[in-house]
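Marked as duplicate of an earlier ticket. Keeping the data here for the record.
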Amino acid sequence: MEVKLKKPILDLNNRLAQENRELMAARGIFVLDLLASPGAGKTSLILATIEALRSNYRIAVIEGDIASDVDAVKIKEAGIPAIQINTGGACHLESAMIARALEALDLDNLDLIIIENVGNLVCPTDFDLGEDAKAMILSVPEGHDKPLKYPGVFQVAQAVILNKVDTLASFNFDEGAFKESVAQLNPHAVLFPLSALTHEGVVAWAQWLSQRIEEKKSCNS
């Protein structure tokens, strides 16, 4: 006998996600869900984003990992509130986990919450967390064919970030083919080639995010 569990699980997740979304909307907080495979540079990009935006916005980070608090420690060392979620083996975050993390944050003094999802290109795509936007990071060393292998994550992302462009000369990465694949899968996604390490291209990414934050705040005013 087949027991179909996915729909009930997602229904409950989506209901709780809507509660998260309404809570954030009431306070004008923009929530970004950041997706990527392990090693793509999620934490490095978050730190670069914090550096670009911290003078104008109050930021907090929710870190999702199977184990450890290494990334949350890095964020806290940068002077930013960070909540660690360890999934204990699960390959994605769920809205109930985010709801508990939100309880630990001072929501009255935040403009932006960045969720660093568990490193995975498949599992997180199905789970609404109550975010305003999903952004997906691909790093140059991973190869230009990833959109063909993992189309789902590119299709749900409002922004696609090509990280580690400072290494393009060292890898057989066809940037044109990559951009074409992304455009075919998701013509509405905004593409940001950048390097979190050198900060090349980070300004354009930060400007896009800043515009979204301002739009969210204006809806709350």
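See parent ticket for discussion. The chain has a mean pLDDT of 93.
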